[in-house]
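Duplicate of #3305? Posting structure anyway:
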């Protein structure tokens, strides 16, 4: 591993953590009775926090041994960037500070993807591994749909059955996004395999 890789991973992790913390502090300061649980119910925030953990672990111990975690993180952050660009760029999703929004939705998805490509996995990733990466998005969907009616709040418009189309629309959008995530999982695995063989 190149000597400068741990340095940029630490810097990226600290920037992400600072951006997430700054955004949360802003919301708590400016919105009375803001629910912290809502903030940590965004796929974006969870994926970025996973990035912090992944980058710090790899910076400290090296990326060898963290192939599966890095692949999952790359999938989730790439999904975050694409879904934001296509569906959410003009919608308020509690990242109201422009620079923090840029970091978590645009900058870090690119950084994480480049990290995967520049330092590909050390071991062969089997198809089952890529399927395991899909568990978290599925659990996230279930969590969001169970929590939503309880707190009368949904993190994203396409998960909100109170809007036109109800649960049918939610099911359709979820199915489309699921197909996209599956395709991305296969692409992340494939890219990792190809680049690993060229090391």
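Output from current build:
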């Amino acid at each position: 591993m190149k000597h400068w890789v741990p340095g940029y991973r630490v810097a990226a992790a600290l920037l992400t953590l600072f951006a997430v913390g700054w955004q949360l502090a802003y919301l708590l300061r400016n919105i009375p009775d803001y629910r912290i649980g809502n903030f940590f119910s965004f796929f974006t925030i969870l994926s970025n926090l996973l990035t912090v953990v992944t980058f710090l672990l790899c910076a400290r111990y090296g990326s060898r041994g963290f192939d599966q975690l890095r692949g999952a993180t790359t999938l989730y952050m790439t999904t975050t960037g694409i879904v934001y660009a296509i569906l959410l760029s003009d919608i308020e999703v509690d990242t109201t500070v422009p620079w923090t929004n840029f970091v978590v939705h645009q900058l870090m998805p690119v950084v994480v993807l480049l990290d995967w490509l520049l330092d590909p996995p050390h071991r062969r990733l089997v198809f089952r591994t890529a399927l395991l990466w899909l568990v978290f998005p599925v659990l996230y969907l279930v969590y969001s749909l169970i929590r939503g009616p309880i707190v009368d709040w949904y993190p994203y418009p396409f998960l909100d059955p109170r809007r036109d189309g109800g649960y049918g629309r939610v099911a359709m959008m979820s199915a489309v996004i699921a197909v996209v995530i599956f395709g991305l999982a296969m692409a992340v695995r494939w890219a990792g395999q190809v680049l690993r063989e060229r090391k």
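Confirmed duplicate; merging threads. The radius of gyration is 17 Å. Residues 118 and 195 are 9 Å apart (CA to CA).
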